Amino acid sequence: MKCALLACVDAAERELIEAALKESHHVDIATTKDACLKQFRSRRYDITLLDLNIGLSSCVTASSSELSRELRPFWQAFPSADIIVLARENAVREAVRA
């Protein structure tokens, strides 16, 4: 079975995403950036979903360079990892640029 890492602070959103993935993926959960990075480094995930609200900069006001700097440890650990950044509508443009 494939493995996914979901980093999300909102319990309702976490449950919704986990339910969507659980038939095809084993889902590990993290609720902080540090916990997520620790889990990310400990195993190779097929997909990683990172909510900006876990502490990746200040979600709404962060520039793409700030977000990129926050994501750098993940890319350094596994450069070819598939990472999906979950963002609110008002933060999507900067998340895409990162």
Descriptive notes:
42% of the residues lie in helices and 21% in strands. It has helices at residues 11-21, 33-42, 64-77, 92-97; strands spanning 2-7, 25-30, 47-51, 83-86. The chain is globular. The protein has 98 residues and is α/β, with parallel strands linked by helices. A 4-stranded parallel β-sheet has the order 2-1-3-4.
Features:
4 helices; alpha/beta; 42% helix; 98 residues; globular; 21% strand; four-stranded parallel beta sheet
Query: Which oligomeric form is depicted?
Result: single chain
Shape: globular
What is the spatial order of strands in the main beta sheet?
Answer: 2-1-3-4
Helix count, DSSP H or I runs of 4 or more residues: 4
Q: What structural class do helix, strand and pairing data support?
A: alpha/beta
What level of helicity do the residues show?
40-55%
Largest sheet features = 4 strands, parallel
Write the H/E string, N to C.
Answer: EHEHEHEH
Radius of gyration: 13 Å
Strand content: 15-25%
What's the β-strand tally? 4
Mean pLDDT: 84
Cα separation of the termini: 30 Å
Low-confidence parts? none
Short description:
The protein has helices spanning 11-21, 33-42, 64-77, 92-97; strands spanning 2-7, 25-30, 47-51, 83-86.
Topology:
Blueprint: E1 2-7, H1 11-21, E2 25-30, H2 33-42, E3 47-51, H3 64-77, E4 83-86, H4 92-97
Parallel strand pairs: 1-2, 1-3, 3-4
